[in-house]
Amino acid sequence: MYPYFGYETRCRQVPLTFPPQHQNIQPGLEYLMNPIPISDNPEYKGSGKLKGKIAIITGGDSGIGRAVAIGFAKEEADMAIVYLYEREDAEATKQMVEHYGQRCLLIEGDLRRPAFSSEVVKKTLAHYGKLDVLILNQGVQFPQESIADISDEQLEDTFRTNIFPHFYLTKAALPYLKPGSSIISTASVTAYAGAPLLVDYSSTKGALVSFTRSLALQLVSRCIRVNAVAPGPIWTPLIVSSYSAEYVKTFGLESPMKRAGQPFELAPTYIYLASDDSSYVTGQVLHVNGGIMTET
Fold first, then answer.
1. pTM
2. For residue 16, which of 182, 183, 203, 234 sits 20 to 30 Å off, Cα-Cα?
């Protein structure tokens, strides 16, 4: 177990580093990482905040999505998890959700295809009969030293993965969302602080901030809330599949807490935004980034 339990250990500001490692395909496989990201906080006890709710979680097989799935299960929600190809990770997440007594439908496919988003919503409705929460969490990033190195193919892939499915899935889900429903996106600290190696990725995350604010205003009269979470450096498969092994060794040390966050440290923020605890919160981006100061 990597040293993140309990709270005092997490806040010591002692630099925590990772062994050098790299995976050659995105968005990466969690079961191959060393150490495995921590998705489940044993100290977190659910209290039925999401009892009876049905959620779709994209990128729910690993990383932040897996942590959200586990947190939602502890709060008594059932869910559909959408993933690209990471079947072993997805099956492991399903087992974790079922361990906490909740149902988990796995849906494999490519969210860059508009028709697949409609398929996701139809399968979820056929399985559960309703939909309450949409977690839009899929993403890729391809670091480049210069904008000149961002090919047309990379630019299109980054936008088609990181932002287009937000429109596709929201359009497909909206007819079935009732008052009290929530749409929650995963933005990024890079939308605010910038990132010299991630010009295209940061641009998509900035688009998600505007998407969140504008859609919130559009749907407020329907009592559907739209918010986002902006993580800082978090230890997920996306990191080892996009950065070099040498870069991974120091990942997260730039944060004031001198470490990367673990996925479980974000889950309560998504739970809050999906629950009635945040009934007066819409159009907002909540920052979970280890103390990095940003302009909101």
1. 0.95
2. 203
